[in-house]
């Protein structure tokens, strides 16, 4: 439903905007006042972008970009503040409308994934912390792992709605999102994706005046490919195009990375972010206007793919092919490059448009707007892919297997695959979006080649952005040569632990001075108080359990004090008290505790986890890594042979180890250090 609202808003506002620009262009071509349509074009772009950028910069900064890197981190087990709030949803939806209508080289498909994740998270909790309303629904799901499963389903539903690809949505969530998977989750996510596509179909058919005619597969409509037949020898051409896509994708990522670092250093103020976004909008309009003016590519109106044909200096019955690409929503331009008749654009038009659009896309992603990278990559790739088909047509003029639209599709897949480095899910998404399963092998070969070549030069686009944000996300596999590292070398120590019963003053002091999220519950050994681990590190006592910071906050809020150090069975706080506060717990500084309460006691035994995940102090880093990756852990207790706590391993402790290539091709392990400086 949200996707339909976004799509209709973009469609209606786009018709108004491009209609105004067309009218001004048609008028001023004969009256020699082309500066007027240029100023109108630039003013409309900057107006929409000013609104969208202001909302992102001043209301909800986490709504910037596509949101896919943040959702990927969340599904990996890392909590991203404000990622799935209701306010984020509104800013994301309104922001992406302003971005696309504002003419930036961006799309709405990526933000749809974030939108789906926010909706799923909100439904699963049955309450909204943004509007401070509790509907008292679905309390059972108010836990981290349950909420994460819903977010995984929401992300898949967003993909399904964007591309009309329910199976692709499931595979996207599996390949790019969830760290831990089970069979039951598979069918639930597939059901959510299917319902998403059905709902989108139903609403769009109603909007277009044919209710019940379910022919609107997704927000991005690639159109119907009559024939995608291919010869066996063409697979080599597809591999070459995949390699080109991988190299162009690496170039895209490298330059965009440099721009992001520059922004993080120098464009930090909110007003500067808004100014930069407006500058990009103005430059985009300028580039488009200059191309329309200088590249006089005239084509017969009979092959016009746009609703706003611009004649410019063309003859009667002709339109400007460059204007047809610029003066419509980018999704329509992608479809035009896929399905236009051969000869609809000149080679000069395709070259200039592809270079300009690729350069603007590199600059655009990372500014303070809600924007996706899928459409810019597809459009730039379709441009050079169609150019490839046109070149092959000149070399082999009588070859029946050459179809510029087919090569535009392969180029689009190669470009997108070279940037995002997805293989399985992107193959299925494109198969479902085109409705042609027979072309699956060429798409798969193209995407795999693009990934292999791209991985040789740079990391994947989303992974690099995650690193820039300093998020301790864990890759699929541990560093290759990390078997020599053990828990004692990786862990954090000394450990801040509590006894089974602890004074309020001790707990308040610990929570105020440290930001740890988990605390071991230990019982001090009287017969061997100076027990040490193998490297001489002191232990803090025998492990009895683990308690979370959020649990301690709730216990202090509810004044769950005990008499004589013990709690009666009837005085325990019920589980509902902890779920009611989830997921936003107050800070320790916001809880008022009188001085006379500091000497009172909390019995932690009824609330602690008596069997937390532990690892022996000699365990290797790969074993620890796989425990974190498979179970979505935030912390792991390190114990000795006698079950005494010697340290704690957190995500940051293991995420800082990376593979490095040493001299003569040797592979080693590099230890990074966390810093807020670039």
TrEMBL record:
Q: What is its main location?
A: membrane
Q: Which domain of life is it from?
A: Eukaryota
Its membrane topology: Multi-pass membrane protein
Stored Gene3D superfamilies: CBS-domain, Clc chloride channel
One example of the protein's molecular function in GO is: chloride channel activity
Residues in domain CBS?
A: 608-671
Please tell me whether the keyword Cell membrane is annotated for this protein: no
- GO cellular component terms given for this protein: lysosomal membrane
Alphabetically list the UniProt keywords.
Answer: CBS domain, Chloride, Ion transport, Membrane, Repeat, Transmembrane, Transmembrane helix, Transport
The answer to keyword DNA repair applying to this record is no
Compartments annotated for it: namely:
Membrane
TM stretches of this protein: 38-59, 150-173, 185-204, 235-253, 274-295, 362-384
Q: What family is reported? A: Belongs to the chloride channel (TC 2.A.49) family.
Q: Report the protein name in the record.
A: Chloride channel protein
From the broadest rank down, the organism's phylogenetic lineage runs: Eukaryota, Metazoa, Ecdysozoa, Arthropoda, Hexapoda
